[in-house]
Amino acid sequence: MGATFLASAAPAFGVERLTYRDRNAPIDARVSDLLSRMTLEEKAAQLRSMWFSKSAILGPDGNFSPDKATKVLADGIGQIARPHDFAGKGVFLQSREIEDSVALVNAIQGHLVQKTRLGIPALFHEEGAHGYLARDSTIFPAPPALGSTWDPELVEQVFTAVAKEIRIRGGTIALAPVVDLARDPRYGRVEEFFGEDPRHVAVIGTAAVRGFQGRQRPLAKDRVFATLKHFVHGVPRGGLNIAPSDVSERTLRETFLVPFAEIVKAAEPAIIMPSYNEVQGIPAHANVQLLQGTGRRQLGFRGAYMSDYGGVANLQTHHHVAANKADAAVLAMNAGVQADLPDGECYIHLPELVRANRISETQIDSAVAQILALKFEAGLFENPYIDPKRAVRETNTAASVALARKAAQRAIVLLKNDGVVPLKSRAGLKLAVIGPNAEEALFGGYSGFTAKGVGVLAGLRNAAPKGVTLEYAEGVRISEPGGDGRHDTFTPLVKVKPEENRARIAQAVETASRSDVIVLALGDNPIITKEAVAYPMPGDRNSLELFGQQDELVEAMIATNKPIVALLLNGRALAVNRLAEKANALFEGWYLGQEGGNAFADILFGKVNPGGKLAVSFPRSAGELPVYYDRHPSDDVNQYVEGPRKPLFPFGHGLSYTTFDISAPRLSRADIGRGENVSVSVDVTNSGKWTGDEVVQLYIRDDVSSVPRPVLELKAFRRVTLAPGEMRTVAFDLTPDDLAFWDADMKWTVEPGLFLVGVGSSSVSLKTTRLSVA
């Protein structure tokens, strides 16, 4: 099928050379020419998508039906959602074989190019939060793990690989990256976030966009358009998905808008996706001030706004600001949402709304122009088809697997170590590998599935030195798995019977009693930490303790008096006070992707030195939230009856098998003007016996300001690798924008005065100096 279409890419439009068909014409001219030839119905179709409604163009076997498409796609279509799946055929979680997915893309494009009046190809969008969400694609560590690498160069490489796997299977848009801030760990969607700090997320998010799109536009053939999302989640009330975000204009500008603003400026993302929730009292998909005032005029965004899935319809069903889907379409169009994803159930009313003078055709034209421009930029008019053999050959390659392993190695954070790790291998060493997260390769949400996934137990077995033996016990079960034996995002939560878990704990105690060291794998699974999409499938929590009976298992393991090496695999920061107190070593891994087991084994046995750092603060309890590090001074004037609010593990924290010395910061000038730069340099020395990585972090604090400022603000960071005894000088530039803030009149300004400048290995381990600004 694909070969036939490849041979017939030239449409049968007669001999007239149309401007929009001229690949050498400017994109604006091609868009203008095509728009002038389109009917209102053809324009409206470009603003819609098909996901579950794909059933209207599929036959009983799930394959493309030309006869059905002739009627359904007569006016064309803007986008197709997730062509890899069977949505609309009752088995949408099932992913097609690569060749079948490619065949469907080529069939749809062939019909649109050859059988519709104007021959306009479709965009295909896919999920790519940490890998292409499709069968057999490479699964990289989850976003919090990528954030823990503090390595933008590596992150750019990861998303370059993700982009290629999406594009070679026909995708042109990635609905990623998520650049919201993880400020409330109760919220299940924090598993999609890189971290809590605006600057850190901006840097990592910029790297992700550059990986998806490349560093130059127009889009290259192995790249895809990036989608920044979600604009703007803020902190939903109670940590509940879709709940309102009660944030002031100042808080928006100082925190939640920072990643969007910096990424728009640095990387020119093609698309922004509004959030589900209210922002300052107005649902984001109907928020003219947010999308036009803030996004367009303040941030300078020039790309397309595409709705979150059902975001336009939610104006009726969730927010009750629209009486019906047609009203919802009017609100979203007036706010400037250019595409109604995933099924266009509201924008199907656009022609009738134009005829009723409720919206103008000029509004439609402006939106369609954005969609068509993406299609021209991606080269879809010239090259609408893809090669199935290449798609198979270049998916989940050896190079991608190696990159996934490297990313997982660099993501793992060593939180505590009394010297037990790296494990000193010896003949006869017995390891008890115990815990609900020890055997299954947990990928986290927004990921596909690959049989190449390596869990902790398999990774340790692969790497165990000669003479080291392993014995496994499940210990407890966090929740019951789905029918395929996996803990998948869309598996309903079924709690485990306590008596069954206690039997598992007893078995684990027997196993541990025969060991020299316990390797304990705990945390979350994708059933309990995820985007809450429906009542029987929650993902938000009111507690941050280990879920279920995991704490019972922890106490049972402590009682054995065996050394404990614990690994957390999870999607949110957890209040693991007892584990942190009693474990001899504690690692944070988040979800480590398909190579997670191998990466952890590399670190446990000392082949690789851990160097990751926390990109979120770990709380001691949900009652102490918020615990993010950049609070205002008045946040901590008082304390709780139980004691002062302090994180269990602070932002930026992470240990190594070696030690580092970071000198006091040196300023190129101690006094500068308000419009001047200053260079900050430190000497970093590996004072230990292992080659290792240190993340050098630069923070500032405005000592006295006209409005309260955070007690610390991260402004720059760099991950460096040093051999034992090696010293390197690391330099950063502080610019006026780094020192500026929104003053009492909401003007972006640098105020004169003294600034603390601190450099160190975490937000609580800093050496400081003072900078005077006149």
Automatic annotation (TrEMBL):
Keywords linked to the UniProt accession: Hydrolase
Domain of life: Bacteria
Keyword Hydrolase included in the entry's annotation: yes
Sequence ranges assigned to domain Fibronectin type III-like in this UniProt record: 694-763
Pfam families registered for this protein in UniProt: Fn3-like, Glyco_hydro_3, Glyco_hydro_3_C
InterPro entries (UniProt xref): Cellulose_deg_GH3, Fn3-like, GH, Glyco_hydro_3_C, Glyco_hydro_3_C_sf, Glyco_hydro_3_N, Glyco_hydro_3_N_sf, Ig-like_fold
An example Gene Ontology molecular-function term: hydrolase activity
Similarity section: Belongs to the glycosyl hydrolase 3 family.
Protein name: Glycoside hydrolase family 3 N-terminal domain-containing protein
